[in-house]
Amino acid sequence: MTTGEKIARLRKEHGLTQEQLAEKMEVSRQSVSKWESDLAFPETEKLIALSMLFGCSTDHLLKEQPEGPASNTAVYQGGSFFASHGGVLYEYKSKRAICGLPLVHVHIGLKGCAHGVFAFGLRAKGVVSFGLLSMGLLSFGVLSMGLLAFGTFALGLLAFGAVAAGLIAVGAVALGVYALGACAVGLFSVGAAAFGHYFALGDVANAKIALGASSAQGEWYTFCTGLQNTWAGFDKSTVTGLLDERVPWYLHIFAEMCKWFL
Predict the structure, then answer these.
(1) Which candidate, 211, 217, 194, 213, places its Cα nearest to that of 203?
(2) Digit-coded pLDDT (tens) for 36-45
C-alpha cells in the first residue's frame, strides 16, 4: 500500500472529504487529490500533521506495505476490503456521514474505538452505541454510559443495569434520585432493601416516610406490618399528604412516581 493509498484510506476512516482534509492541512483539494493518487508527495511538515490527525506514525505513512493474505486484518470501507494492522480484527465505515460522523461504524479490535451515529465495537461512542465499553445518547454495554443506558454497569440519566446509577436508576443495586432495585438508595427508593431521604418502600425501609414489611424506620411517617412482602394497612392519605406538603416542589415529579406504589 502506497503513501497515497494510506492517506486516502485514513481520510475515509475518519469520515473526511478531500475538501475537509485540505482545509485541516491548509492546502488545496487538488493537493490532497495528488497525494492520494501518488502524483505528489506531502512535505515533511504536512506528513507530521497527517500523522497527528490520523493518530499514526510517519513511518506508517511512508513505508509501503504489501496487500494480500499476509495482512492480519480485514477491513471494509464503503464497498471494498483492504488490509490493515494495529490489532484491528474487523472494521466497517459507511460512506454516508452525518455532521462528520459515519452513519455506521463497526470496529472490532483491541485498539481504537467505534465512533459513529450507530457505533458497534469493543469500545463504542455514538448517538446509539453497542460495546463492552459504550458511550452514547442510547447506550448498551457491559459498562454503559449515556442519556439512556443499559448494561451490567449502567450510568445515565435513565439507567438500567445489574448496578445502575442515574437520575432514575433501576437495577439489582440502584443508586439515584429515584431508585428501584433489590438494594435501592436514593432520595426516593423502592426495593427489597430501600434507603431513601424522603421516601422508602420495601421489606426493609429507612427514610423520612418509611413503609416496610419486616422493618421500617422513619421520621415523618413509619409503618411496619411485621409480615414479609406485605404493606397493606397504612394510611394512604397521610402518606400522599406528606409527599405533597414536605417534598420540595422541584422533586414533586418523583413524589408522584412514589404514589404509583401506594
Answers:
(1) 213
(2) 888 888 888 8
